[in-house]
């Protein structure tokens, strides 16, 4: 049986623990044994993104100590996985086990597609769903082709969702546009961040979405705040929760 180390981002642990539990259930349904190192902490992305690199360094080093012994590490977050794969070099380059850790740390959907190579998912989710493609997942992990690249179209998250009975993916006018969250950007540039979020929600509404899903709960948290404050007729659901509910209904 394949064993993975489960990394749960700090904001999911503190605010959306159900996303972590859904991730475990999805992995276990597909024959994966999940271990959760209880000493894990934040990956250091917030500090690194704001220029506090020395404050981020001990968190990167701790991540390596906790997870380098696993064949694979899986997380329900594109941005945190991208932090490990694309931004840890300045902290960990040359340290034992780091090259393996970079190659073997996966966002949940890409793990299901690229490692488990699932031919299809058995499940039902009879709703109109809008897929929000977060910037880190799309442009750093390459979960999808992106409209600005001259490559054959692909989308790993959409591939999984398209297998679910009754699920209708709505067609967005600007399918890979940023939601405006950007971590501390949402605090430092609140007005711009909210305008970008409203633009994304308007696109989903025009397309007829009932539910907005994605691989980053941070982006969905930002959008959900706007939805609730403005009483918009939308719901957000992390892709792990959506897959978990759909498979449970199979």
From TrEMBL:
Pfam families noted in UniProt: CCG (PF02754)
- According to the entry, every stretch annotated as the Cysteine-rich domain falls at 4-84, 129-224
Which organism does this sequence originate in?
Anaeromyxobacter diazotrophicus
Protein name (database record): Fe-S oxidoreductase
Query: What GO molecular function terms would the record report?
Result: oxidoreductase activity
Gene Ontology cellular component list: cytosol
Q: Which InterPro entries match?
A: Cys_rich_dom
Superkingdom of this protein's organism: Bacteria
């Amino acid at each position: 049986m394949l064993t993975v180390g489960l990394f749960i981002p700090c904001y999911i642990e503190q605010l959306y623990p159900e996303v972590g539990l859904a991730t475990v259930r999805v992995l276990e349904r597909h024959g994966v044994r999940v271990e959760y190192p209880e000493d894990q902490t934040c990956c250091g992305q917030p500090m690194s993104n704001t220029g506090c690199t020395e404050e981020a360094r001990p968190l990167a080093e701790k991540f390596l100590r906790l997870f380098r012994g696993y064949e694979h590490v899986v997380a329900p977050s594109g941005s945190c996985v991208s932090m490990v794969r694309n931004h840890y070099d300045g902290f960990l380059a040359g340290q034992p086990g780091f090259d393996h850790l970079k190659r073997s740390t996966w966002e949940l959907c890409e793990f299901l597609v690229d490692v488990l190579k699932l031919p299809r998912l058995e499940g039902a989710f009879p709703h109109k769903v809008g897929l929000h493609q977060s910037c880190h997942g799309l442009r750093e992990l390459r979960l999808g082709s992106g409209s600005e690249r001259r490559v054959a179209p692909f989308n790993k998250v959409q591939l999984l969702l398209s297998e679910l009975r009754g699920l209708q993916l709505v067609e967005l006018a600007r399918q890979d546009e940023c939601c405006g969250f950007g971590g501390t950007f949402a605090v430092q540039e609140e007005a711009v961040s909210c305008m970008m979020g409203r633009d994304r929600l308007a696109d989903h509404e025009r397309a007829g979405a009932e539910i907005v899903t994605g691989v980053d709960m941070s982006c969905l948290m930002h959008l959900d705040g706007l939805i609730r404050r403005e009483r918009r007729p939308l719901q957000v659901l992390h892709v792990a929760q959506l897959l978990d509910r759909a498979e449970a209904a199979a």
